[in-house]
Amino acid sequence: MNITGIKIRRTYEDSRLRALVSLTLEGDFAVHDIKIIEGAERLFVAMPSRRDEQGNFRDICHPITAQARQILESEILSAYHEYLRESGRPDSSQEEGNLSEHPPVE
User: Fold this and answer.
1) Fewer beta carbons below 10 Å: N end or C end of the chain?
2) CA–CA distance, 28 with 106 (Å, rounded to integer)
3) Contact 37, 43 (CB under 8 A)
4) pTM of the model
5) Mean pLDDT of 67-88
């Protein structure tokens, strides 16, 4: 998986939602509306989702393996922290870079 672009499209300061992100893979495939969310323990990345008929949220697209999820989350959070540094905004994350493994989502 070759991530060729990460764009922090919008940031938020007054909610758990911290940013909306777009990601480009291989220079050929874009994923929009990736969310950076401030959880109880750390920042985490949520893939684009929609509500199903039962009212549950389902990812529209997602990494298949834990390794791919960890790579995406690490790269996205690094880009977010760099964006905050470059824009002179304070980084309010509780723990930078504390990534946990997620099981594959099927």
Assistant:
1) C
2) 24
3) yes
4) 0.80
5) 95
What integer pLDDT is reported at residue 27 of this predicted model?
A: 94
- Alpha carbon 60 to chain centroid, angstroms: 14
**The Cα angle at residue 23 between residues 19 and 28, in degrees rounded to 5:** 160
The phi and psi torsions of 24 (rounded to 5 degrees) equal -115, 130
**Tokens (6 digits) for 64:** 């298949």
Nearest to 98 by CA among 46, 44, 52: 44
Show the beta-strand stretches assigned E in 1-106. 3-11, 17-25, 29-38, 43-46, 49-51, 57-59
Whether the CA torsion 21, 22, 26, 29 is positive or negative: it is positive
Mean pLDDT over each residue of the chain, to the nearest integer: 87
How close are the terminal C-alpha atoms of the chain, in Å?
A: 19
Helices (H), 2-90: 66-87
By three-state DSSP, how is residue 90 classified?
coil
